[in-house]
Amino acid sequence: MSNLLLKFKAKDSSYGVTRETLKALAEEMDVSETMVVHLAISRFAKEILPAYEADDGPLAQGDIKRLRKAAAPMLPKGKAVRTRSLL
How large is the average pLDDT for residues 60-87? Predict the structure, then answer.
């Protein structure tokens, strides 16, 4: 387990809070001040960090051809009766 020193701001802003605000949150939520900090960081991480690993970039032309060939038998057959566009 490692520790972190948390320095509070003199007033609340979008970049930090006062110790009084942390205490009020802990009391309102009926949890410890440490838990409030963990909850806040957890929410911030979900908002900022990607939910999945970056992919390898665009597919190669050969990959696209293989996918189209594999999908062709599953696509609908026949003439289009009506088409619409959202754009």
Answer: 91
